[in-house]
Amino acid sequence: MDDSDQQIGLNYELLVEDALRTVVRESLGIAERAGLPGDTHFYINFATTYPGVEIPEALLADHPENITIVIQHQYQDLKVEQDRFHITLFFGGRASPMTVPFAAVTSFNDPSVGFGLQFGLNEADLEEIEAEMEENAPDGEENAVSADVVSLDSFRKNPN
Question: 100: part of which helix (H) or strand (E)?
Answer without folding.
Answer: strand 94-101
